[in-house]
Design a protein that fits this description.
With 737 residues, the protein is α/β, with parallel strands linked by helices. The chain contains 15 helices and 40 strands. The longest helix is centred in the N-terminal third of the chain and has 25 residues.
Length: 737
């Protein structure tokens, strides 16, 4: 369909009218410009209506209507948060019905309905039984072979091939597994995030390194799941975002070395086109640094726990070994007697619940929103330790140098610093924000575009906020230069950084206007966020951020948290008795003190105290019962107590202090892991009370991961299973992560 333009419409007029119109100052042409504008709107609407006929191209709101035409009903609505869509569930409905009842079909149904990788297991296939000469099952070996360590590691997992005794408990009630009618759907809720070009952290022991850049944290490596291309394929380990195991990686690398010695072409599963981990050694001491990849056959998979030693430089077959890797502990060890490298660069994947905190996921929407709200960028710099092929634009090798250059800019500058890789940048940062200035520091590439006349150039304001997660190791201090009560104080926005160090906003006489942290991690054990000095007009906003304890100067006006985790353990998480605190969809681990307090769909693990109880409202939250806040609406555990008390009165039963204490003791949030760095950090545990797991206003879980809509996705899968299970079979959901 050709675009409607004023020139095309004007050209359709007879020449005599165009001549007369030109003589009168072209009023007719001006009218046709308005007609063309409205015509373009109608044309775009027609094109959109055509797209909405097809499930592949339709708008998200049309998906349920197309599903209704196919008889896809009874599904809970999942808000369009960008996390999950029911499009695949509707598109594959006919395929489900053609393969109804098969394990591969149930697996695809689970994947499309929830968005989680899945594996279907027919437990009757691995039941142990007495052999009969009329029907010998060679695979049903009753006693496992203790020498087959790979199979033993997979015991009771989704890939278990060992036979089991019968378990007559119902799998639909999440109890038994191995029985004739049982089908298990294993689901992986944690996602795998691949970090390319990261700096391996050195340890106290020479020659030993760690994949996780944060000190004193061993983090298991995760698989980079490979996409299944056929609905008839049953998922394997390589297809799911699970933790890596030593055995399969060791076996593949041993087979690879043997194939190379024999002159054959090695076959790669874990170390194929998209290897699950990569190691590079630095070859020069001056930035920009050059790195040389270590081939997979020169990597040895080993155990690097307590008492581990560095691997030998050659194996028993005479193959060269440069580095040992422990994927379970996330550690590396350089081979003995080999000269230690200047540094190691690594590529690896880690696991986490969702797009929250500093990570290499796509943050383009967040960055674009910030840039659209700000004036046009007048100054931009890039930071990278990687060799830069295009010379255009200011590219610094350290973040400290880039900040120093920004501090020399005149007041009123709108600046963007793009950190273009995932390396570690060491050194304390002292950021100065003059009055009228705006600085945006983002984890983003600075793309080079073709320019007129040939060559490439980097343009101000452009970015690519994907596949990078820089690590800042040092204290960050922000200082505003605007006088108190100034009408145009400076603004600082930081997006996508992993900061291991205290973050301070401090000045005794001047102030900062606004501090916005989005998709960042301020390592909880490294100091958190502190605001001191005057800063009476400072507006603080944290979005999708993990942070340690927050301490705010009494005169600052407000602090807002959205989709955040604030972790202070058993200490004070937020000390802000002089400000207005607004917490939405967040998890706060530790005590909270604020002047007045608003909250919604959030979890507070310890006492919350608001100085002014007549202000603020708390909705759909969990707070300890002795918390002091303003008005509460449908908050736990009081809501459960009130419901139980009303039910007891309706039944003519007594309800007293003992019953109330039992409810308060039962309804307490529980986490799969409470230590930052664990893949399941701050994820609600499966035994967590239903009142909390579905207590948000839309039926999702309370807390920072409400945006994942996990209860709705699980409910949709359970509602879909009855239609596609074979008669007599029963299915259960098993969460692998």
């Amino acid at each position: 369909m050709s675009a409607i333009t004023p020139e095309k419409l004007y050209a359709l007029l007879p020449a005599v009218h165009r001549i007369r119109d030109d003589a009168q100052g072209q009023p007719l042409k001006a009218l046709l410009e308005l007609v063309a504008t409205q015509g373009s709107i109608v044309e775009a609407d027609i094109a959109r209506l055509l797209d909405n006929w097809f499930i592949e191209t339709c708008d998200e709101w049309v998906v349920p209507y197309i599903g209704d035409l196919l008889g896809v009903r009874g599904l809970h609505a999942v808000p369009a948060t960008g996390v999950f869509s029911q499009r695949a569930r509707v598109a594959n409905t006919l395929g489900y019905r053609r393969r109804k009842g098969t394990a591969t079909m149930l697996e695809q149904l689970a994947r499309d309905t929830t968005g989680w990788p899945a594996r279907a297991v027919e437990f009757f296939q691995i039941l142990g039984w007495n052999q009969n000469y009329n029907h010998i099952r060679l695979g049903a070996v009753r006693t496992p072979d203790l020498r087959r360590t790979n199979e033993l590691e997979l015991l009771n997992t989704a890939f278990d091939s060992t036979t089991h005794s019968v378990d007559v408990r119902r799998i639909a009630l999440d109890r038994g597994r191995h029985n004739i009618p049982n089908v298990g759907l294993f689901l992986w809720r944690l996602e795998s995030y691949y970090v390319p070009n990261s700096t391996a952290r050195t340890t106290a022991a020479p020659g030993f390194y760690a994949f996780n850049p944060v000190a004193s944290q061993d983090r298991p490596l995760f698989n980079r799941p490979q996409t299944e291309t056929d609905i008839t394929h049953l998922a394997e380990e390589i297809n799911v975002p699970g933790e890596l195991r030593r055995r399969p990686l060791y076996d593949e690398l041993e087979a690879r070395r043997a194939a190379l010695l024999a002159g054959a072409t090695p076959r790669g599963t874990w170390f194929g086109a998209h290897p699950v981990l990569q190691v590079f050694r630095q070859t020069n001491a001056v930035a920009p640094f050059n790195y040389v990849a270590i081939p997979p056959e020169k990597i040895r998979i080993c155990h690097l726990g307590i008492g581990a030693v560095r691997p030998d430089p050659t194996d028993a077959a005479g193959n060269e070994i440069f580095v040992g890797v422990d994927p379970v502990l996330g550690r590396l060890a350089w081979a003995k007697t080999r000269p230690l490298p200047l540094a190691l660069k690594i590529g690896f994947a880690y696991g986490f619940s969702g797009d929250l905190g500093g990570g290499p996921y796509d943050r383009s929407e967040s960055v674009n929103t910030t840039l659209d709200r700000a004036p046009k960028t007048t100054w931009q710099a890039g930071v990278s330790q990687e060799p830069v092929t295009v010379a255009s634009g200011q590219i610094f090798t350290t973040l400290t140098d880039a900040i120093a250059e920004w501090n020399n800019q005149a007041p009123g500058t709108v600046g963007l610093i793009a950190i273009m890789d995932s390396h570690t940048y060491m050194g304390d940062l002292a950021i100065v924000i003059p009055e009228g200035s705006r600085l945006f520091i983002a984890a983003a590439k600075w793309p080079a575009r073709p320019k007129v006349g040939g060559g490439f150039e980097r343009r101000n304001g452009e970015h690519d906020a994907t596949e990078v997660r820089p690590h800042v190791l040092g204290t960050v201090t922000v200082t505003g230069t605007a006088p108190v009560a100034n009408q145009s104080p400076g603004v600082l926005t930081i997006d996508g950084l992993l900061i291991e160090g205290a973050f301070n906003v401090s000045d005794p006489a001047k102030h900062l206007g606004s501090l916005h942290l989005a998709h960042c991690t301020l390592v909880p054990s490294a100091g958190g966020l502190t605001v001191t000095g005057k800063n009476a007009d400072l507006s603080l906003q944290l979005v999708r951020t993990i942070c340690g304890p927050i301490t705010i100067v009494p005169t600052a006006p407000s602090l807002s948290l959205e989709d955040c985790i604030v972790d202070a353990g058993k200490n004070i998480a937020i000390a802000a008795d002089g400000i207005a605190l607004d917490v939405q969809d967040s998890t706060v681990i530790g005590r909270v003190i604020a002047r007045h307090f608003d909250a919604g769909n959030s979890l507070f693990t310890a006492l919350v105290k608001a100085v002014r109880r007549q202000e603020g409202c708390v909705r759909f939250c969990y707070l300890p019962p002795d918390s002091i806040t303003g008005r509460r609406y449908r908050c736990q555990p009081e809501l459960a107590r009130d419901d139980a008390e009303q039910a007891a009165k309706a039944a003519g039963e007594s309800f007293g202090a003992a019953e109330e204490a039992a409810i308060f003791a039962r309804i307490v949030p529980g986490f799969t892991a409470s230590d930052y760095g664990d893949p399941a950090y701050a994820q609600l545990a499966t035994p967590c009370p239903l009142e909390i797991r579905t207590g948000a206003e839309d039926g999702a879980e309370m807390g920072a991961f409400r945006f994942l809509q996990q209860p709705q996705r699980e409910a949709n899968l359970r509602a879909s299973l009855d239609e596609y299970l074979r008669f007599g079979l029963e299915a259960g959901l098993i969460f692998s992560t």
